[in-house]
Amino acid sequence: VALNNMVIAAADSGKLMAFNPDNGALIWETRLALPKGRTELERMIDIDGKPLLVDDIIYSVSFQGRLGALTRGTGRNLWFQDSSSHHSPAYGNGTVFVTEDSDWVRAFQAGSGRVAWTNEQLTRRELTGPAVISDAATNFVAVADAQGYLHLLNAEDGSFAARTKVKGGAVSAPLLVIGDQLIIQTDGGILNAYKVIAR
């Protein structure tokens, strides 16, 4: 994440680091996760998703580790919650959303890290990371899957709001929100754009 006064990078070691963009000097570093287990696979704690910056707070999640909130200026830890994901988290209306490696979609309160809700109904569908999209009144969490479906969950409670088949097959690329449109690139090379229409 490139900012005016620092560059924030995530590493396979489970660390987040901030560097001075002028000279590359380390400003701060903090560990998001500690390796556990006996085998190399069990000890993997990669941070694969891009850290998410909201105002002055950084949210990031590691594989087989934790979701954490840290201050941008010093990297001070605000809270941690056990979580495991290869994807970037998403944010909307005071809530952080994570697609976990179990394919559970989970919502955490941004201020405290408390779990707000968990949707376990998309297990084994190989979900993308979440994206937040809204109509005039409601926030939704969007995820797509390896079977080529786009799912919309109500951001308040995780209940299903809509589902549609995406043209072009499976989706593994991150979802992109531009304004009020959700952009989806399928593995079949088709670019789709969706918009939530209030009924």
Describe the structure.
The chain has 199 residues and is mainly beta. 0% of the residues lie in helices and 45% in strands. It contains no helices and 18 strands. It has a 4-stranded antiparallel sheet with strand order 4-5-6-7, with no helix packed on it. The protein is globular.
Short structural summary:
With 199 residues, the chain is mainly β.
Features:
199 residues; mainly beta; four-stranded antiparallel sheet; 0% helix
CA distance, first residue to last residue: 37 Å
* C-alpha Rg (nearest Å): 17 Å
User: Number of helical runs?
Assistant: 0
Level of helix content? under 10%
In terms of DSSP E residues, the strand content is over 45%
Shape: globular
Strand segment tally: 18
Uncertain residue ranges: none
**Overall average pLDDT:** 94
Lateral strand order in the biggest sheet: 4-5-6-7
Q: Main β-sheet: number of strands, strand sense, barrel status?
A: 4 strands, antiparallel
